[in-house]
Amino acid sequence: MSEPLVLDYDLYSLPTAQHRAGLAGFLVHLRGMERRGLGPLPEVVHAEPGEVRVRLTPEALQATLNHLYEATAEEIQAKALRKKGRKGEEKQVVEPLRTETRSETDAKGRTKERTVYIYPQVVPGAPFLAALDVPDIWLKLWREAVWSTLRGIPKTRIPFEQRAEGAAVGEAHALWTELGRWRRAREHGRVAPAEVASSLFIGAQSANAERVPFRGSPDLNLLLHFWPVVMGVAEARRLQFKDGQETEEGDGFVLAVPDVSDIEWFVEDFERAAGQLDPRPHGYRPAAGVVALPQESALEYLHYLWALASARGIAGQVKFSVSGVEAYHLRRDGNSVHLLGVGRVVASPKLAQGYERIREMARSPLFRRRTILNLLHDEPWYAGFERDFSHHDWRMFLRGQFAGDARRRLAAQSGGRESDD
């Protein structure tokens, strides 16, 4: 049996929000495994606030990653045969599991036969979220967001595919080897960095345009497997006006990464907040999981933490368990995943309270977007609307959700519910 590794983490010394969220996600994940009687588990000791010591064996690492990447093999139907191949080359047909004929009835009552093709599909399990009673509509959004962004490139899905086949995650052995090399190098005063994959760290590249490799310490790379456990997810939407109607079009996903500042409180907060996610739908998505701009996903994350922080406030002092939330807007195009934007929202009572007002009153994506931007920039709620009026069809503002939002906001202000700003 290999000698155990001892890893010491100081929350306040970790380099990025993704690493700090990773440490928190690691603890949330282990607590879930413990509640389900799974193991063997790494031994975790909390020393001073923000300090975590982990005693890790290869068996514990394997069990932890196996549970993290749990997945199932399911079947989906496609209307056309799938094809694959490199750009510029002739595409090859991917053979389906089988072909079926389905009867469909249209709006006029006419029935016709349609051929569908059944293909296998690996679906991430996310047992750490299911165990916290996260509503199904949010679980579906989390799974699709991961599959379209962090694991949008097929080769990055291997750990999930291995678990769907009942095999152990092969990455555990590679990571243990890197950790052993790192420990031996450290004993001799050297460093032994390892490559950081883009599936673990948003924006990472094996090498940039100047051929500088993207590497990190293996003990820190371990944490990067776990920040998706505690991330927030949303679908970005783009509003269009076609044929006299407002339409929403999907524009990728937004991943909200909490910048954890109090790890003990955060773990408790997250586990409580996860089961309180609002399941009310907007089409096939949770209404709160459809955002008009990336920062809205960060504010939505703070919305749940704000309620918990307020409940434990002492002498009127509200303390968040995060210093802020980072938002990453990602969209998959073919076999490439593009980072479209990055934002950060500071955890403050003023922003949390301001967003609560917008959340309660605003339904129109355009109205929500402008008032959120004004909140973040500390401007009056009505500032900047002239820019929206000049860039969109005028009919979008005279009826429907936008008109209703404006009417309610103006009525609230004239009724004394708003400040004079």
Describe the structure.
- The model has no long low-confidence stretch (mean pLDDT 88).
- This protein has helices at 17-35, 58-68, 127-130, 136-148, 158-164, 171-187, 218-223, 263-274, 294-311, 349-361, 365-376, 385-391, 395-398, 400-414, and strands at 5-10, 43-46, 51-56, 71-78, 82-84, 92-94, 98-105, 111-124, 194-195, 215-216, 232-242, 245-260, 281-282, 285-286, 290-291, 322-333, 336-346.
- Helix 8 (263-274) crosses helix 9.
- The chain has 421 residues and is of the alpha+beta class.
- The chain starts with a strand and ends in a 7-residue tail after the last helix.
- The strands form six sheets. A five-stranded mixed sheet has the order 15-11-12-16-17, sandwiched between helices.
- The chain folds into three domains: 5-71 and 131-228, no CATH class; 74-124, no CATH class; 231-414, no CATH class.
Which characteristics define this entry?
single chain; 421 residues; alpha+beta; 3 domains; 14 helices; globular
Quick recap:
The protein is of the alpha+beta class and 421 residues long. The protein is built from 14 helices and 17 strands.
Number of strands: 17
Strand order of the largest sheet: 15-11-12-16-17
Helix content: 25-40%
Structural class: alpha+beta
Number of domains: 3
State the distance separating the first and last CA atoms.
67 Å
Quick check: average pLDDT? 88
- Annotation field: number of helices: 14
How would a textbook summarize the main sheet? 5 strands, mixed
Query: What's the gyration radius in Å?
Result: 24 Å
Proportion in β-strands: 25-35%
Low-confidence stretches: none
Coarse morphology: globular
